[in-house]
Amino acid sequence: MSARVLKHLLTAAVALAVVTAAAPAGARRHDPEKMPETRIRDLHYGDVLFYYYQDEDFEAITRLTAYQHWDLVKHHEAEGQLLLGGLYLSLGMHNEAGARFQALLTDDVPTGVRNRAWFYLGQVWYARGYLDKASEALAKINGKMSPEFEAQREHLYANVLMHQGRFDEAIRLLASARGTSIWTAYARFNLGIALIRSKRLPAADSFLTTVGTMDAPTAERAALKDRANLALGYAYLQANEPAKAREPLERVRLNGPYSNKALLAIGWADAQTGDYKGALVPWTELRGRNVLDSAVQESYLAVPYAYSKLSASAQSADNYETAVEQFSTEDKSLDEAIGRIRDGKMLQDALGADKEGRYGWFWQLKDIPEAPESRYLYVLLAGHDFQEGLKNYRDLNFMGKMLDKWDDSMAAFGDMIDTREHAYAERIPKVDALLASGAVDKLQQRRAELESRFSGIEKGQDVAALGSAEEREQWARIQRLEAALAGAPDTPENAELRARLKLVKGVLYFRLNDSFKARMWQQHRSIKDLDLALHEAQSRWIRVDRARKAVPNNNGEFAARVAALKERIDALQVRLAASQDKQRGYLADLAVRELDQQKERLAAYQVQARFELAAMYDRAANEEQPKKEPGAVQQKGEASPESSDQGAAPDQGSAAPNQGAAPDQGTAAPSQGAAPDQGAVAPNQGATSDQGAAAADQSAAPNQGAPAPQTTAPGTPGQPAALGQPAAPAPQGISGAPKS
Prior knowledge:
mainly alpha
């Protein structure tokens, strides 16, 4: 399952709020299989969705949990919890997701939404190796899903049953599969494997033959077709029926990803019937391929073994010597690769090759890093265990970067607190002087005096008091002139001046009186504005006084919180570093274990090749020794001619190399997070192997784990190894431990 699929789940099935334009109720028809559209009522929930739609899942989780803590998304509580469950699921935190789905996926949620959520959760549980929980999640699906989802659900549940060893139940479930879709092909393949594991090879033949002879227009179908033919061929080899094994093995493409195993098996089918000359044809072709493949390595022993059976001792010896040289060269290269892995360069190369910068459960390594050790580890790198471990290691690295970022933020917060304290120290003298001045009280007193003055003007109807400056000056001049004329003699001239002054005074008074009420109203308005300004000044005065007392306490509280967070981050960084070292060691051990197994196989092959060479040289030396005359006394330590001749028989002195173990008969799972031992390919997932196959055929999914067939101990003649029984995939948390 890809991140795009999960995005579809979260968008369509986890009740995300979307902004919708106002429209009549009948203008929009609701799909009962989907959550209804709702309006965003809390701005902070919209902020979460912004980061969600930017694929910033971690940031969305961080913000959503913070907003929920501060009760800022109270109108979207249920939707937020479902969204949080989906985001946890995308990050591989299946326990958190499962707990939320368990509580919130009730009957109130549409059936289609609820079923899809449980289906995807079951996939995550299955891929993580928690088979019981995967079975429980799938059991919560109520009724039938869409045909596509129903096929996937049946296929996934069958895989769970087979990994639990419940083959009869898996057979009954898959026997009803119909149609020609890719899911039907996978179901038939898995059913055939289940029948083989149940020792019912004849019944398995029809299913695997159907898959092995189907049309294969795509690389995925072609790979599955080859896989089915290879599995059936090896099954017949194990049943000691080489004649029946040839037909399916010959259907495997010569340049496909499974061609090496098929060529090796065809050779052993011929060898089991005594046709060693015929066996040389596929083995010789195989011997010219990449020596890294275990089947090619085995062909280096099979070819000289066939020559020895054909009494071609010289060719057999030459090929054994070539095998020893090749094995020795590869052994040295393996030692160098192990050294690089021990130095930690493998993970640097693996993560350095990833340019997407993604994290979470749906991330996987898709490109093999350009490194010397990669040529030996392509199967391991594509395997489930390594992919899961690498995901965990990458997530640890991502968390380390986040902790470093937050640690830098703590330092910035500390600087901000220091700046606040410095600014407080600089401003406190001015603040203290201002608070001690009683400026607000003085302003209040002046306001009272001003109001008293206006009251006197209003009562005394002092119209000149509210006049303009020019008018007040004119009124004052008139009053001075009146006082001067009052003491002047009563002459005609003075009488005329008094009349003219009275006229001027009347005109001016008329103007002042006419505007007196308007000016008085304006003054009352100004007093009200002044009251508001004084009230604001008093409020600010109180806040300044409180801040004067509270700032030291606030800075101390902030500093304590920052210090506590810093201490917590430091502790997490220590734990994270320990987990990274542990996970790095776990992945290195996986890789080294794989290379050690290759070294052990090469060592065993070398021993066998050297032993056969020594035996051949001994036989050749004994044949060249002159025969003693009849009756001659045989010296102690000399071999009799009869015994020498018996040891020189070419068809009795060579041990058959290992005849090739059967390929891993794991179940196939397209596009749904396969379990660790799944051997079949997954749709639309590119190859990670460039070993001996065309690029178009490399369809083994990186997380599907298509391991190369393991060989039995060299030098042990007999039938191919038995098909391995399915093992429940080990839950992979950090260093392989189940995630809590």
